[in-house]
Specification:
Distance between the termini: 21 Å
Keywords: Transferase
CATH topology: Aminopeptidase
Shape: globular
Oligomer: single chain
Helix content: 25-40%
GO molecular function: protein N-terminal-serine acetyltransferase activity; protein-N-terminal-alanine acetyltransferase activity
Mean pLDDT: 93
CATH architecture: 3-Layer(aba) Sandwich
Low-confidence stretches: none
Largest sheet: 8 strands, mixed
Radius of gyration: 16 Å
CATH class: Alpha Beta
Protein name: Ribosomal-protein-serine acetyltransferase
Number of strands: 8
Pfam family, one: Acetyltransf_3
Strand order of the largest sheet: 1-2-3-4-5-6-8-7
Strand content: 25-35%
CATH superfamily: Gcn5-related N-acetyltransferase (GNAT)
Organism: Planifilum fulgidum
Number of domains: 1
């Protein structure tokens, strides 16, 4: 998936180097909002840091081991959705996502994640997708739940949050479940 129109106003686009400034501006404007769950926020200090992230993401895309898509709403960068791990041998992907505060509450992330899962479980033919998020991150959990993911586990103090560690929740979806209609949840 290089680009995908979600609706009249929303599009996913494969992150490219020329998107680095837009990514950095969105991160910079949302530091306090993202910091509780995104440990990398304080390491993103310049546009060059965003360029480095995108370059590594493109290298992973070329290897088929990851994909990172910018979420654009009315031509403005709103967030990122992606698979930071794609393992074709295990037929598995782990996805993550974040959205600028001003874009929340409109179903944008649920639609973006749905499109990514359609690609991973449909087009790429993977067997399983996981979403992992901090136990306190209710918004990330809600996206997984709206899309019919089942909570499969809890890893104690396994993710860095607010200078400490917090439990990590694991949500899973199998291709057969996705095809059987669970993907219609959250529409």
């Amino acid at each position: 998936m290089l680009s995908h129109k979600i609706d009249q106003n929303t599009e996913l686009k494969l992150l490219e180097r020329h998107h680095a400034e837009a990514v950095f501006r969105l991160v910079d404007a949302n530091r306090d909002h993202l910091r509780p769950w995104m440990f990398w926020v304080d390491d993103t200090k310049t546009v060059s840091d965003s360029e480095t992230f995108i370059q590594k993401a493109l290298e992973g895309f070329a290897r088929g081991t990851e994909i990172h898509l910018g979420i654009w709403v009315d031509g403005e960068m709103a967030g990122i959705v992606g698979a930071h791990t794609i393992d074709p041998i295990k037929s598995y992907a782990e996805i993550g996502y974040w959205l600028g505060k001003g874009f929340q509450g409109r179903g944008i992330m649920t639609r973006a994640v749905r499109a990514l899962i359609d690609d991973l479980l449909g087009e790429r033919g993977l067997n399983r997708v996981e979403i992992r998020c901090a136990a306190s991150n209710r918004r990330s959990q809600a996206v997984a739940e709206r899309l019919g993911f089942r909570r499969e586990g809890r890893l104690k103090k396994a993710t860095p949050v607010r200078g400490g560690f917090e439990d990590l929740l694991i949500f899973g979806m199998l291709a057969e479940e996705w095809r059987s209609g669970k993907k219609d949840m959250g529409r």
